Amino acid sequence: MSKRLVVAAIDFGTTYSGYAYSFLDEFKRDPLKIYANNDWNDGSGMISPKAPTVVLFDQRGTFHSFGYDAETKYNELAGTDDHDGWKYFRRFKMELYKKTIRKNTKINDAQDNAKAAIDVFASAIGFLKDHLLDRLHKRDFGFRDTDIDWVLTVPAIWDDAAKQFMTMAAGKAGIPEDQLFLAYEPEAAAIYCKESFTTIAREQKKSAELIPFKTGDQFMVIDCGGGTVDITAHEVLKDGTLKSLSSPSGGPWGGTVVDKHFQIFIENIVEKDIYKQFSKECATDKLDLDRMIELKKRSMKPANEKVNLKFPNELFTFYEEKKKKKVEDTLPIGPYKGKVTKKRDRIIVESSIMLDMFNESKNQTLAHVEGLLRKWELRGVKKLLLVGGFAESHVLQEAFRSKFGSAYEVMVPQQPDLAIVKGAVIYGHQPHSICSRKSPYTYGISTSIRFDPMKHAPMHKSIGGRGEEKCEDIFKPFVKRGESLEQGHKTPEQSFTAPNPGDHQVTVEIYRSDKDIPPIYVTECTKVGDLVLKLTNVDPNEKALIVVQMSFGGTEVSVEAKESGRRGQKVSARFDWLK
């Protein structure tokens, strides 16, 4: 258990972000005594437990604001055409999923202005960190910053480079590395749901056999966020901890996919170029439209016959000025003939049109979950937990119940959008809540062995210093994809010889593969990095013996190489995935 007095978690989402925290003494009595900031205000009186993941920089490139404040300020600037030179970033988290990330990666804002991604992410994390600290200090709890452990949530399907990038951004935001944990979003939700559903059942005095998440129970977590759908599966062990049943999986099928289809719908009504001009020139109206879409996306129900959408009048005015006709005159002959009508500033839509907007995200997610449930290692799963902001969608919930309800229990916590951040707080207090994970990759090193013409490709053949035939580039796995790894797992030590007698240093090349069957050669793998070991016990007539071991601590991989013998040198490293 964490010994620091406070655990604070930041849920950094694609569309919305928030934080929560709890105190060690209260956690010991009640793990669900968790405080979230429910005071984010959009300016119109709507209070939210999360703020939009939006960052604004001024004309000097200095951080100006985050969340609703950033939205409001930028729209004020755009409304008076004073926004040139300001940089406005939204929904930028997906950049870490879509592209190969580097330390100097740049991302573009709403006006295609580029800025270093690390500065954008660090500014967002830093604002949330400072907002939380200010909240604690104002209440005069008497804590120092060093009394806090921080937890930053990341998708489980992110690669190692993206996770390292978030650690680096947190460091730049002022969170010391020795006070930081990364938590996988669906794992955090699993921890929270197990705790909360069990507590509710006990408070209702249900019999032991009816209490959910008993020892041996297996369940799947489907984290439906704004950008990605992130899936893990777990089993409850006797001590209450969770072990992973399969490697994390998922894809870019989150709620923003619905937004994309909503935009296509609007463009089909008023035409693409007009909508683009409206978005550029009427930023405040565009913001109101985006918020309306977000509300409809969550409140839309499959049983709705018609949906009433309030569009900004300025959008229709744009259309009428450009086309010299009214929108209502074109709807009867357009692509939505008989299904879409206009009354004043409202568009009345048949529910079938609205439901179609969910199909891509919904169908991709359902198909992926269905495929996972066919796997042998998940045959014992009986519960499906829907969490994340998009899990609030009635359409998505009903789709899961319709598809899987006869064979599985589909469960949704009361506040699915807060399950991750609250679970991350619990994880910060008890990092061993997840006792083991399945490795998403096969990790190993490059080595050479005696060349066998019956097994090895000629292109990998080489001649050693003593004339022996060797096969280079052999991939020697230490851990295989799907292998169960306990927290702090260390692989057995494996011994290798230096390439040549008298070598004064050896370079250990580390690789990984996402294939279920490990490749024979490292040329079919992804290189992770090099570990350089300087040798001291050099014999000009002998090849030095090298011992290599890998360690897996939480979400991080490290490797150690040492020279055999009591006085042999040792070197270890955590991989730099961001070269």
Automatic annotation (TrEMBL):
Biased composition (Basic and acidic residues): 483-492
Signal peptide: none
Region (Disordered) residue spans: 483-503
Keyword line: ATP-binding, Nucleotide-binding
MF terms (GO), sorted A to Z: ATP binding; ATP-dependent protein folding chaperone
Cited InterPro entries: ATPase_NBD, Hsp_70_fam
Keyword Disulfide bond listed: no
Family: Belongs to the heat shock protein 70 family.
Protein name stated in the entry: Uncharacterized protein
